[in-house]
């Protein structure tokens, strides 16, 4: 696979400026998301129009054309001045079957760009058939430590999603994520794993590599492929899971704590997609509270009874945005 088939000239500039990938000792810190968004607007409003036009420019050229402080222009030129290192490291990724795509590239997931807009990560790394990221999908999220009832529910959601032609989108973590993804794969379906942990390490697992090669699994991450778990990556990953999906199902959530709770609250507030929560006698308190905050119920009995989960989801989805006042005072509130 030629890894640069997904990465345009504009994308190469975005990679150099916004990612710690191939960063050398002494290089400046990459641009943060808000810094890139501001720079992209300045480029668009200039005579250059496209990020690719920054290549080969001096700091003085950047400062004059884009009305940048000289120090910031110098930071940009230093980040761009590592093409040899980037080329070498991109070749190394390509040998592992890992691709790179930027928000400016045609292959960037369309729904992710449309739903998150300027919150969408500028650069993504991944493995597998990139076109599958645009397939109709159902996000399935939940706790790592899950009881038997929750595990059975997650497995059944994965299986019935596959039967309905929906790709299961989850985080690839132990517990709910893997159970739902396994349910879909075992039923002959497709799963997308949005990772907050090392992509390179995950791909070294033989079973994972086989599923990627066979077209049943796509992996992607907002961080460089060698990086391990981080809270920041997990928060970004949560956004991606919901934004890639047509709907989401929360299998099990703690109340007012943990990544599952925080991700669901953010998705509800952002109205990224319709969110459902498992409903039944054995569900944890977090699920009950999410139902009060605007998630639609997916009763355990309804999941067992339905033959077409996709149609059931579309019929019962709540499209009205959640009332912001409902979230006042919650730890998950980021306003």
Short description:
This protein is α/β, with parallel strands linked by helices and 335 residues long. The protein has helices at residues 9-18, 33-44, 59-66, 70-80, 83-95, 110-116, 148-163, 176-186, 199-203, 206-213, 231-244, 258-270, 285-292, 300-305, 309-316, and strands spanning 98-102, 123-127, 137-141, 167-170, 191-194, 217-221, 247-250, 275-279, 296-299.
How does this model look, in words?
Helix 13 links the parallel strand 8 and strand 9. The protein is globular, with a radius of gyration of 21 Å. Strands 1-2-6-5-4-3-7-8-9 form a nine-stranded mixed β-sheet, sandwiched between helices. It has two domains: 124 residues, no CATH class; 199 residues, Rossmann fold, CATH 3.40.50.450. Helix 3 crosses helix 4, helix 6 crosses helix 11 and helix 7 packs parallel to helix 8. The N and C termini lie far apart (43 Å). The chain is built from 15 helices and nine strands. The protein is an alpha/beta fold. The longest helix has 16 residues.
């Amino acid at each position: 696979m030629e890894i640069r088939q997904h990465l345009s000239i504009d994308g190469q500039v975005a990679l150099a400026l916004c990612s710690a990938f191939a960063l050398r000792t002494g290089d400046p810190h990459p641009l943060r998301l808000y810094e890139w968004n501001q720079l992209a607007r300045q480029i668009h409003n200039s005579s250059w129009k496209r990020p690719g036009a920054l290549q080969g420019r001096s700091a003085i050229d950047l400062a004059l054309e884009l009305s940048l402080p000289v120090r910031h222009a110098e930071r940009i030129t230093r980040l761009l001045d590592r093409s040899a290192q980037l080329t070498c490291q991109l070749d190394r990724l390509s040998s592992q079957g890992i691709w790179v795509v930027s928000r400016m590239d045609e292959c960037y997931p369309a729904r992710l760009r449309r739903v998150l807009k300027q919150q969408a990560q500028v650069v993504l790394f991944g493995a597998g058939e990139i076109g599958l990221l645009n397939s109709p999908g159902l996000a399935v999220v939940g706790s790592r430590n899950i009881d038997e009832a929750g595990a059975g529910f997650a497995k059944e959601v994965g299986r019935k999603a596959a039967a309905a032609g929906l790709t299961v989108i989850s985080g690839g973590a132990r517990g709910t994520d893997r159970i739902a993804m396994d349910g879909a794969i075992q039923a002959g379906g497709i799963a997308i794993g949005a990772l907050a942990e090392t992509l390179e390490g995950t791909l070294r697992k033989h079973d994972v590599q086989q599923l990627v090669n066979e077209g049943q699994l796509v992996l992607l991450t907002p961080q460089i492929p060698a990086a391990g778990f981080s809270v920041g990556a997990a928060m970004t990953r949560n956004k991606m899971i919901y934004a890639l999906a047509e709907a989401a199902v929360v299998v099990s959530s703690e109340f007012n704590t943990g990544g599952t709770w925080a991700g669901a609250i953010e998705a509800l507030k952002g109205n990224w997609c319709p969110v459902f929560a498992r409903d039944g006698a054995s569900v944890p308190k977090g699920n009950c509270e999410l139902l009060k905050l605007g998630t639609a119920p997916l009763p355990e009995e309804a999941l067992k009874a339905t033959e077409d989960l996709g149609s059931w989801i579309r019929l019962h989805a709540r499209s009205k945005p959640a009332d912001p006042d409902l979230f006042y005072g919650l730890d998950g509130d980021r306003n």
